[in-house]
Every structure is written in C-alpha cells, then in structure tokens.
Amino acid sequence: MKGYVISVYKKIDDEKALKDYAVKAKNAVEKFAGKFLVRGGKKITTEGDDSPRTVVIEFPSYEIAEKFFYSKEYQEAHSILKGKVIRHHQIIEGS
C-alpha cells in the first residue's frame, strides 16, 4: 500500500523559513520517489478550524514514507521550521 505524508499547518510565523524548508524538503521528497498531491492552493474550510496551508505527499509505500521522514535529508529540512510553524504532521498508509 502507498504511504502519505500529510501536514496541516495551524500557524506560520516565518514565510522565509517555510520557503527555505520547501526547497530542502523537495529534494528529500524526490530522493524517496515522493509525489506532491497537494501543496497549498485554493481551498475552503467546511468543518473545524481554518488552516493556512495543507500539504499531501504520496510515496510508493508506507515504509518509504517513514524512511523519508526519518532521513538525514528531510530532518535537515525539518529543523528549519523549529519554532517557526505549528502543524499537525502524519504518515498514513493508504491505497
């Protein structure tokens, strides 16, 4: 089964840091054969709290999505966001 990384941002305090993160994270996504399905874009909130940004990345498998997240390349990108954003981040198995 495929693996998905889903990030729902609650608060973004530093847009520049988010852009720097995006460049590094994209390289890691590509290394692990990930594909961006959602990266921001037009939206409406139909239930719950509004979110400034949502990202969904598809990987060939759950295990590869997990390896991506814990990889050196992604963790270097991830560290850029520390203290700069609040988000809900999950790795989910799906079809």
Q: Quick one: biggest sheet?
A: 4 strands, antiparallel
Number of strands: 4
How far apart the termini lie comes to 5 Å
- Percent strand equals 25-35%
Strand order across the biggest sheet? 2-3-1-4
* Oligomeric organization of the protein chains: single chain
Count of the domains: 1
CATH class: Alpha Beta
Radius of gyration from the CA trace?
A: 13 Å
Order of helices and strands: EHEEHHE
Tertiary shape: globular
Q: Estimate the helix proportion, in percent.
A: 25-40%
**What fold name goes in the CATH topology slot?**
Alpha-Beta Plaits
- Tally of helical runs: 3
Mean pLDDT: 96
Q: Please state the structural category.
A: alpha+beta
Uncertain segments? none
Q: What is the annotated CATH architecture?
A: 2-Layer Sandwich
